[in-house]
Amino acid sequence: MRYLVLGAGAVGGAIGGRLFEHGHDVVLMARGPHLEALCDRGLELRSPDGAGALPIPVVDGPARVRFGPEDAVILATKGQDSETALGALAAVAPADVPVVCAQNGVENERAALRRFPRVYAMCVMLPATHLEPGVVEVHSSPLTGILDLGRYPRGSDDVAATISSDLEESGFSSRPDPAVMRQKYAKLLMNLGNALEAACGTEARGSDLNERARAEGEQCLRAAGIDFASRQEDRARRGDLLRLRPIEGRRRPGGSSWQSLARGTGTIEADYLNGEIVLLGRLHGVATPVNALLQGLAQRMAREGLAPGSLAFGDLAQQLA
Hints:
Helices cover 41% and strands 16% of the residues. It has helices spanning 10-21, 32-41, 82-90, 108-113, 158-168, 180-191, 194-200, 208-223, 231-238, 256-263, 274-284, 289-304, 313-318, and strands at residues 2-6, 25-29, 43-47, 50-54, 58-59, 71-75, 99-101, 119-125, 128-129, 135-138, 145-151, 172-173.
């Protein structure tokens, strides 16, 4: 199988890099300065065990790919970029190409299924960082991450089994899971703290405000009749598999939303994380003041180019007093 990674940032670069290191055919798709750096120097993949430059083929989008029968697309863009990416993919890709959504949130699979019949959901537990062009850092060693996947909306098949096996060979823990969306909804609840971390720093993840955001999320999922893995199930799957270690003496600075602010991209995926809970709350009559506040705050910080961690936690908490 050849892996076409659409969105070669932290998650896409880590998955593509590890697969390539272990002998699998990979093509990365990127844009801007990151594309230029990948073309010039290859992907620099850093880990606690060292760094190396990987000469992975790279193109600027799906239109540059010659698709074949053994291809699978790993969609690894941020949620706010999925529509554009899927539109470009649908314009040139075979209708039956498998599309694997290796993304946070739960809306990407629905968007992909509107265009492609063979869609796979992947629950991504992969601590990685992408802050400079051409460079991706993976922070867990010896195992890089946990990547379970299954057909969307449910089920499994030989493609899921093959991808899972290839990932297992490439430094990940991966299982075919016919009910993987239960894991993805549990991950959504965890990701409700991304905006809080981006605004106030990593310490805010342990705050009461983070728990309040999660409680709203759980209430909305139950009101909507959506099943999700419990905290106990999540802890059992993770076990002690993810072992974060410093890279060149540096610890991981922050998660995906923190990194969006640090790179000054002008966009952030809060609409597909906190905004998903706000949407469900409005549909099912559940109040979501914490998630609505975090959604709006994250969007404002991205729009105005504010630095991650630049908001005092006390000022934010006061808005909900």
